[in-house]
From TrEMBL:
Enzyme class: lyase
Database matches in InterPro entries: Aldlse_KDPG_KHG, Aldolase_TIM, KDPG/KHG_AS_1
Compositional bias of kind Basic residues: 1-16
Organism ancestry: Bacteria, Pseudomonadati, Pseudomonadota, Alphaproteobacteria, Hyphomicrobiales
Catalytic activity from the UniProt record: 2-dehydro-3-deoxy-6-phospho-D-gluconate = D-glyceraldehyde 3-phosphate + pyruvate
Single GO molecular function: 2-dehydro-3-deoxy-phosphogluconate aldolase activity
Top-level taxonomic group: Bacteria
Name of the molecule in the record: 2-dehydro-3-deoxy-phosphogluconate aldolase
Organism listed in the record: Bradyrhizobium cajani
Family recorded in the similarity comment: Belongs to the KHG/KDPG aldolase family.
Length: 243
């Protein structure tokens, strides 16, 4: 599939900086990190976008998702307990591959890279955020909705991107149009993806995974309906297997 080719942006190597908790080493390139991310995303297929309001929900929620076969989790920085929630999930639910979403600026990135999470995601990008991410060892997928944003991401070596908001920013037709000039970019569409259309998105050759909140509705989290969340995950994965 053409989507497996790398864009070959030729990342320069950077020296280890002792001040960073998780330093980028001399033999590490952004391209290698992007390949790690592709492997993780492909394995995940679906990535729940989690908004955790109460710290005590973090571990049972992660367990419910893992029980439903969904192991790669995006904890968004939308709530004050997000960082603590990610820490608790990593400590108590080692089967989960925990990442952080809604990274909006370099300060967020710095907080996140110290956590030891598997990946970072943002809904959009800024030059400062891309620079922070390119200097870091943490695999990162910037959010893009336009060709210009994608070009900026590529300039910094990022050829795996979150396409956000996927449905609202052109849907499958929009993604296909972007695939023309950028055949080597791999995408994780998020925003408006759900049980009804996940398979359609995943059938696109340049889509490595889809993300969304449908796997973990706020109402179910608030109600502590962990069995219900497990059931949504199982139903979704079953439908995708049959697709
Ligand atoms: O918070 C973030 O970091 C985001 O980038 C946005 C989320 O990924 C989408 O809002 C999820 O969209 P829905 O699945 O339609 O709810």
């Amino acid at each position: 599939m053409p989507c497996h080719r790398r864009s070959g942006t030729g990342r320069h190597l950077r020296a280890r900086r002792p001040s960073e908790t998780k330093a980028k080493t001399q033999d590490m390139t952004t391209a290698a990190q992007q390949n790690q991310l592709v492997a993780l995303f492909r394995d995940a297929t679906v990535i729940p976008v989690l908004t955790i309001e109460r710290i005590q929900d973090a571990v049972p929620l992660a367990r419910a998702l893992v029980a439903g076969g969904v192991r790669t989790l995006e904890v968004t920085l939308r709530t004050p307990v997000a960082i603590e929630a990610a820490r608790a999930m990593m400590a108590e639910v080692p089967e989960a591959a925990v990442g952080i979403g809604t990274i909006l600026n370099p300060a967020d990135f710095t907080r996140v890279e110290k956590l030891g999470v598997r990946f970072g995601i943002s809904p959009g990008l800024t030059p400062d955020l891309l620079k922070a991410a390119a200097d870091s060892a943490l695999p990162f997928a910037p959010g893009i909705a336009t060709a210009s944003e994608l070009m900026m991401a590529l300039t910094h070596g990022f050829d795996v991107a979150k396409f956000f908001p996927a449905e609202q920013a052109g849907g499958i037709k929009g993604l296909r149009a972007l695939g023309g000039p950028f055949p080597n970019v791999r995408f994780c569409p998020t925003g408006g993806v759900g049980e009804a259309n996940a398979a359609t998105w995943l059938a696109e050759p340049n889509v490595v995974a889809v993300g969304g909140s449908w796997l973990c509705p706020t109402a179910e989290i608030r109600a502590g309906n962990w069995a219900g969340i497990t059931a949504i995950c199982q139903r979704t994965l079953k439908a995708l297997k049959g697709a």
